[in-house]
Design goal:
It is a single chain. By secondary structure, the protein is of the alpha/beta class. The protein has two domains: 26-172, 3-Layer(aba) Sandwich (Rossmann fold); 175-341, Alpha-Beta Complex (L-2-Hydroxyisocaproate Dehydrogenase, Chain A, domain 2). It has helices spanning 2-9, 40-48, 64-71, 87-94, 118-135, 148-161, 175-189, 222-233, 235-242, 251-268, 315-341, and strands at 29-33, 55-59, 79-83, 99-102, 140-143, 170-172, 199-202, 209-212, 274-281, 292-300, 303-307. The strands form three sheets. It has a six-stranded parallel sheet, with helices on both faces. A three-stranded antiparallel sheet has the order 9-10-11. A hairpin with a 6-residue loop joins strand 7 and strand 8. It is globular. 46% of the residues are buried. Residues 1-25 have low confidence and may be disordered.
Length: 343
C-alpha cells in the first residue's frame, strides 16, 4: 500500500505530499471533458490526488456523474461534481474553470493512424470548444484528443470565430512524447528515467515527433538510433497492438496530461521558471507556413510566457525536423480548413 502511494505521488514531482493550503487565492477549478473515457477516468483520478486542484468538474456524454461519485470518495480536499450531457450541464461544468482538459473522442484501433480519427474527433472537439469559448473564454485549454496537430487549430478557429482567441492559453498536450523519449533512453543507457528529460519538438504524431537526443548529451548510431526514433515516434502503436483493439495509450496519456496540468497550476499559483514542452501557436516556423509547433515553453500566470527556440541540432536531427515541418503544415491546414467548412 505504501509503495503504491509513493508511485502515485511521484507523478507530481516536487508536490510529493508536502502540505498545501488551499486558500481562496490559490483555489483552482479544473474541468475534464470526456471524463468517463479511457483517458478521462485515470486523468480525473490523478487530478483528484493533486492538492493544487480545489474543484474538479467532470463531463461526458455518458457516465460523468458516476465517475465523479466514485472519485469523490478519495480522501483529498478537492470537491468533485459530475455533469449531465446537456447544454446546461456542460455550461455549468465549464463555468469558472481555470483549466479545461479535453481527452474526449474515440481511441485508435490496430492499423489506425491518428489522422484516421480525424472526422469523428474533429466534430467532438469543435463542439466542446464552442461550449468553452462561451462559458470560460479565459481558461487554459489543454487539448488531448487526437490528432492534436489538427484539433488544436480547430479549437483556435472556434475561439477566433467567437472573438475570444488567446494564443497564450491554448495548448496541445505533447508531454507523452517527452515521457516516452526519456523512458526509452533510460532503458538503453541504464539510467534513472526520473532524471531524464529529452527535448522533443514538432508535433504529436508519427514523423512530426522529433526527439533531440544530442541536447541531452546522448549519441546513438545506426540501427540503434533508427529503432529509438521509430519507437518514440510510433510508441503509441505498441500500446494499440498490445491491447488488441481494446484501446490505445490511455494510462500513460493520463499521466502526461496530469503532469502538464500540474505545471500550469504551479505557474498560475506563483512558481517561477516552469518549463514544459507543448504544441502552441508559435512563431518559430511561421515563415515556412507552420503556425503551430511544439517546443519547450515557459509557463506563467497568463499561460504562455516564452516560447523557446529549438536550439542546436545534429545534421540527422535537422533532417528529421525537415520531414516534420512538411507533414505538420499539412496537418494544421487540414484542421483549419475543416473548422472553416464545418462551423
Amino acid at each position: 500500500m505504501f509503495a503504491a502511494r509513493q508511485a502515485t505521488q511521484s507523478v507530481f514531482g516536487a508536490v510529493q505530499r508536502r502540505a498545501f493550503s488551499q486558500t481562496a487565492a490559490n483555489a483552482s477549478k479544473v474541468a475534464v471533458l470526456g471524463a468517463a473515457g479511457g483517458i478521462g477516468q485515470p486523468l480525473s483520478l490523478l487530478l483528484k490526488l493533486n492538492p493544487r486542484v480545489s474543484e474538479l468538474a467532470l463531463y461526458d456524454i455518458k457516465g460523468g456523474p458516476g465517475v465523479a461519485a466514485d472519485i469523490s470518495h478519495i480522501n483529498t480536499k478537492s470537491t468533485v461534481k459530475g455533469y449531465e450531457a446537456t447544454p446546461e450541464g456542460v455550461r455549468e461544468c465549464l463555468k469558472g474553470a481555470e483549466i479545461v482538459l479535453i481527452p474526449a473522442g474515440v481511441p485508435r484501433k490496430p492499423g489506425m493512424t491518428r489522422d484516421d480519427l480525424f472526422n469523428t474527433n474533429a466534430s467532438i472537439v469543435r463542439d466542446l470548444a464552442k461550449a468553452a469559448a462561451d462559458a470560460c473564454p479565459d481558461a487554459n485549454m489543454l487539448i488531448i484528443s487526437n490528432p492534436v496537430n489538427s484539433t488544436v487549430p480547430i479549437t483556435a478557429e472556434v475561439f477566433k470565430s467567437k472573438g475570444v482567441y488567446n494564443p497564450k492559453k491554448l495548448f496541445g498536450v505533447t508531454t507523452l512524447d517527452v515521457v516516452r523519449a526519456s523512458r526509452f533512453i533510460s532503458q538503453l543507457k541504464s539510467t534513472d528515467p526520473a532524471n531524464e528529460n529529452i527535448t522533443v519538438v514538432g508535433g504529436h504524431s508519427g514523423a512530426t515527433i522529433v526527439p533531440l537526443l544530442s541536447q541531452s548529451g546522448y549519441e546513438l548510431q545506426g540501427a540503434q538510433l533508427d529503432e529509438y526514433i521509430k519507437r518514440v515516434q510510433f510508441g503509441g502503436d505498441e500500446v494499440v497492438q498490445a491491447k488488441g483493439g481494446a484501446g490505445s495509450a490511455t494510462l500513460s496519456m493520463a499521466m502526461a496530461g496530469a503532469r502538464f496540468a500540474e505545471s500550469l497550476l504551479k505557474a498560475a499559483q506563483g512558481q517561477k521558471s516552469v518549463v514544459e514542452p507543448t504544441f502552441v501557436d508559435s512563431p518559430l516556423y511561421k515563415d515556412q507556413g507552420v503556425t503551430y509547433f511544439a517546443s519547450p515553453v515557459t509557463l506563467g500566470p497568463n499561460g504562455v510566457e516564452e516560447i523557446h527556440p529549438v536550439g542546436k541540432m545534429t545534421e540527422f536531427e535537422q533532417g528529421l525536423l525537415e520531414v516534420c515541418l512538411k507533414d505538420l503544415k499539412g496537418n494544421i491546414e487540414k484542421g483549419e480548413k475543416w473548422a472553416k467548412e464545418n462551423p
